[in-house]
Amino acid sequence: MKQIKPSIFIIITSVFLLIYSMNVYGQETGDSSPWISFEEMVESNQNQPKKIMLFMEADWCGICKRMKREVFPDTTIESILNNKFYPVRIDIESKEEIQFIDERVTKEELSKQFGIQGTPTIIFLDHDFSVIGNKVGFSDREELTALLNFITDEQYNETNFEEYMQNTQ
């Protein structure tokens, strides 16, 4: 059996580790959980009504990718989303059709109906699809956790989010 020279072994090992780390690093965390499809949300909401969180995003949106990588994988945020919301990602440029209330629309058309001007935008809906409110732009873990609690506890009926944040600090 022929021995491999140490330098070749180091090169082969280095290349393997580089390729492996690129695959692991390139995977976006938070993409599989807690997200559900729009259709799953509609069906589940009929059987067990919950609040709905629509994460309006685009493939080219760097801030959206950052939130999916850094914010949504947080265990507290995942827990709140899994237990209190139906979280759905919507690509604002998608031509995929969905059934929204009583009409078929593309995700792009739905985005226009909601008046989306920028990404990311988070839209909160009540179980009957009425709009509770929205948040445009990046939210860090702390802000998103507070926002989810604000919506879950229905504090939006009592005050606005800015006042809520001042009173909780």
UniProtKB/TrEMBL annotation:
Positions of the Thioredoxin domain: 27-153
The record's InterPro entries line, in alphabetical order, gives: AGR/TXD, Thioredoxin-like_fold, Thioredoxin-like_sf, Thioredoxin_domain
Where does the source fall among the domains of life?
Answer: Bacteria
Q: Which UniProt keywords apply?
A: Signal
Can you tell me where the transmembrane regions are?
none
Q: Which SUPFAM superfamilies match?
A: Thioredoxin-like (SSF52833)
Task: Specify one Pfam family.
Answer: Thioredoxin_2
Coiled-coil parts of chain: none
Name the chain's protein: Thioredoxin fold domain-containing protein
Q: What organism is this sequence from? A: Rhodohalobacter sulfatireducens
